[in-house]
Automatic annotation (TrEMBL):
This is Polyketide cyclase. It comes from Arthrobacter horti. Gene3D superfamilies: 3.30.530.20. It comes from the Bacteria.
Length: 149
């Protein structure tokens, strides 16, 4: 199994951070290269919600992806599973309160199968790049005009 995670401290309460993350439409505000996010099924931000994304990495054509929210505990935890995309990962956001701030851990796991198990280093690099984007989440949520009310 390939694993990557990264933590940041965001200067907002846990419910604000959770609500922002649970709404997949907000992904475009903090995930680099993401061009569109559309709710394809379920209730927004709830278990079973399916989001379709279009990702443009810059050097190639648009890459489609789809994920489903698999677990949701308001203000504490939001987990998802990639249904379709370049890396079929499972992951989540894990929130904990620290004073008037929230620690956000973004974690991804991927089990390479078939020929991909020979390229686990490439998979690890992709996961590391993805979880590093949580730094951008911090920048967005620490900017007062971007905070969700």
């Amino acid at each position: 199994m390939v694993h990557a995670s990264r933590d940041v401290l965001v200067h907002c309460d846990a419910l604000t951070v959770f609500d922002f993350l649970a709404d997949g439409a907000n992904n475009r505000l903090w995930r680099e290269g993401l061009r569109s996010v559309v709710l394809r099924g379920g209730a927004p931000g709830k278990v079973g919600a399916v989001y379709q994304q279009s990702y443009y990495p810059g050097q190639s054509s648009i890459i489609p992806g789809t994920y489903r929210i698999t677990n949701s505990r308001s203000g504490a935890e939001l987990e998802f599973s990639v249904l379709y995309g370049p890396v079929g990962a499972r992951g989540g956001f894990y929130l904990s309160t620290e004073g008037d701030s929230t620690r956000v851990r973004y974690a991804l796991d991927f089990t390479p199968r078939g020929l991909r198990r020979f390229y686990w280093r490439d998979s690890h690099r992709l996961l590391e790049q993805e979880v590093f984007q949580v730094e951008r989440l911090k920048a967005v949520l620490d900017t007062p005009s971007q905070q969700v009310a």
